[in-house]
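[User]
If only I could read C-alpha cells as easily as an amino acid sequence. I have put the entry right below:
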Amino acid sequence: MAAGCSLWMVFISLCFLMTVSAALLQRLEHPVKADASLSLLVIGDWGRKGTYNQSQVAAQMGRAAKKLDINFVISTGDNFYDDGLTGIDDPAFESSFSKIYTANSLQNQWYNVLGNHDYRGDVEAQLNPILHNIDHRWFCQRFIVDTVLFKPKDHKYDWRGVLPREKYLLNLLKDLEIALKGSTANWKIVVGHHPVRSIGHHGDTKELITQLLPILEENNVDIYINGHDHCLQHISSTTSQIQFLTSGGGSKAWKGDIHKNETDGVKFYYDGQGFMSVELEQTNAKVVYYDIFGKVLHVLNLSKGLNYAM
C-alpha cells in the first residue's frame, strides 16, 4: 500500500503540475495500476490531419498502448499545424486529433503541452474545456514548463493570460522551484515543448539552459521530456543525473541537419518519425523509442533507491 501511494505521488507532484493565469502551480491526480506502476506514451509535433506519416505513427501508438496497457498519453506540443486552432469550432481538432488517434488503447486521457505553433493561433481555444466535451481525452493547460514563453521573438503569438510575460515567467520559475524542493517523489519528471539539450535542427535552447536548467539540477530532476525538434533523441547530462528525452516525431520529420559538434552526452538520435513509451515503477524506469513500423530503436533503463518523506 505504501509503495503504491509513493509512486502515485510522483505524478501528482511532478508530471502534472500545471500553471494557471497567476502562474500558481496546481496538482492533478492520476491513479496508478493495481501493481502501483504507471505506463504512458509520449508524442510531439503531430497535428497535420494525418499527413507526413501522422496516421502511421498513430497506428503504431495504438499497438504499443495496448501492449503496455497505458494510463495516459503526453503530447509535448505543436498539436495543430501550422498556426494552431482558429477557435473551438476549428475542424482541425477532429481531423488532426479525434479522427487520427482512434485505437481503443488510445482513448485514455491526453495531457497536452502547448507548442510555439499552437501559440500562433487562438491559444485560448486549446485551453477551453469545451474541447474536452467534444473529445473526452483532451486536457490542455499551461503545463510546466510552458517553454514558448521563453522564446517570444520569432513569430506573433497569442499571449492572452500570460501578460506581463516577464512577471509571469518569474512567478512560474519561483513556483516550480518551490514545488520541486518540497517534493519527496522518487521520480522527478518535467515536461515542456522546447528542448534544454538537442543536437537537432533547433539545437539547445539557451534561455532554458540559463533560466530553467539550474533549477532542475539543484532539485535532482531525473528526466526532462520535450518536443520541438522533429526527431527522437536521448541525451544524458554530463553534469547531473538528468536525462533529456525528445519525442517530436509525430508527423513531419527528416530535417536532415544535426549539430555534429555538440554531441556530448548524446546516446541516441533518430531524424525521423516515431514516439516514445515510459514505464515507471517505484525504483525502476524504462523508456523505449519506436519508429513508424513499431520497431524499437533505443531503450533506456534507469534505477534508483527509494525516497522517504521525513
The longest strand covers residues 296-303. DSSP finds nine helices and 15 strands in the chain.
